[in-house]
Amino acid sequence: MGAPESASADFRGACLEFADPTTRERAICRFRQLADAGHAAACYNVAVLLMAGRELARDDVAAERYLRLAAAQRYAGSYRPLGMLALHGRLAATRHASGDVRRYLAGQWFARGWLAGDAKAYALMLRHVPCLFACMVLCPWR
């Protein structure tokens, strides 16, 4: 990919195309190209589309991968969807886990989102504080 300015311009262009139903498919292709090149906001957009299963076929594994790429770049919006995937057992680590483990991992993602500046993640984190606390105190793997 070229300079960061060109990636930002490409991303803005893809956002404008996505708003128009006649160019939405082209926008999704551009989002995917940018996401595969590591653009954090594009990773988030592709992941949300994959999670929703409307514009793209639902694929939790790919959505998790894109969200983790965005989270690795500290993209604030990426933590809350990771928490929601964990809470609903759609993350790889939570597919066969109990409800407490799911809530614990979701709480961790929500806390990271809150620390990154996502105000909505704060409310979700507070819901899962008791489980976070119990797991931190009682967890035999600490």
Using only C-alpha atoms, the radius of gyration works out to: 17 Å
Largest sheet: none
What is the number of helical segments per DSSP (H or I, 4+ residues)? 8
Order of helices and strands: HHHHHHHH
**Parts with pLDDT < 50 across at least 5 consecutive residues:** none
Q: Into which percentage range does the β-strand content fall? A: under 5%
The general outline is elongated
Distance between the termini: 41 Å
* Structural class based on helices, strands and sheet pairing: mainly alpha
Share of helix, binned: over 70%
Secondary-structure topology with pairs:
Blueprint: H1 4-19, H2 24-36, H3 40-52, H4 60-72, H5 79-87, H6 99-115, H7 119-127, H8 129-138
How would you characterize this protein structure?
With 142 residues, the chain is an all-alpha fold. The chain contains eight helices and no strands. It has helices spanning 4-19, 24-36, 40-52, 60-72, 79-87, 99-115, 119-127, 129-138. Helix 1 (4-19) packs antiparallel against helix 2, helix 2 packs across helix 3 (40-52) and helix 6 crosses helix 8. The model has no long low-confidence stretch (mean pLDDT 86).
Features of the shown structure:
142 residues; 70% helix
Briefly characterize the structure.
The chain has helices at residues 4-19, 24-36, 40-52, 60-72, 79-87, 99-115, 119-127, 129-138. The chain is mainly α and 142 residues long.
